[in-house]
């Protein structure tokens, strides 16, 4: 099944999805098999791969290795054109709506087309909104943009709605890798109330209760990365549902 169709169907049924984010720049390739075994028995529905600063070919090598150990869909979450590989199942075509750097709004997307044209990757237009989290994240550094204030909900809401009007198929609220604070439940709830498209939330989520609160506030897909880098024991709390 196509990744976006699966997300749409799950959202329509009220079924929450969970993605494990793996950053090729921080992940030990030799650790892949053992790590993915834990992912496979967790509640994970997707594996996202990407980061702000990744060496050439690192993403492709990691994706190929992951695919040998799981049937879960692998979705690219790229910080740059160099992270595109046809070995994944889908690509979040991220436009950084919270920033005003033309390269990350449209520039790099134009450069990506020549690589995407000859692949079978499912390309999913995604409005990406960076929310301040108590620390300057790699996304801000890489893109030269500032995160949106977590205390001013209306501009975030308007930005998400503008993304939907522009034709984005997903909205991604991101606190950033290594965030001290996740996106607030109030922001999630407000944004979800105006969207007719699925909402992804990631960054700064380190506990099961934080994940459950994000779901309860309206997140359709929750993404966790750093928490697993710091403590793989979290997998034990996030076992696969038996239904």
Describe the structure.
With about 240 residues, the chain is α/β, with parallel strands linked by helices. It has a single domain (about 5-235), classed as FMN-linked oxidoreductases (TIM Barrel). It has ten helices and eight strands. The protein has helices spanning about 5-15, 30-40, 60-65, 100-115, 140-145, 155-165, 185-195, 210-215, 225-230, 235, and strands at about 15-20, 45-50, 75, 90-95, 120-130, 170-175, 200, 220-225. An eight-stranded parallel beta barrel has the order 1-2-3-4-5-6-7-8, surrounded by six helices. Helix 7 (about 185-195) runs parallel beside helix 8 (about 210-215). The longest helix has 15 residues, at about 100-115. The protein starts with a helix and ends in a 6-residue tail after the last helix. The model has no long low-confidence stretch (mean pLDDT about 95).
Main attributes?
8-stranded parallel barrel, 243 residues, TIM Barrel, 10 helices, 17% strand, 38% helix, alpha/beta, 8 strands, globular
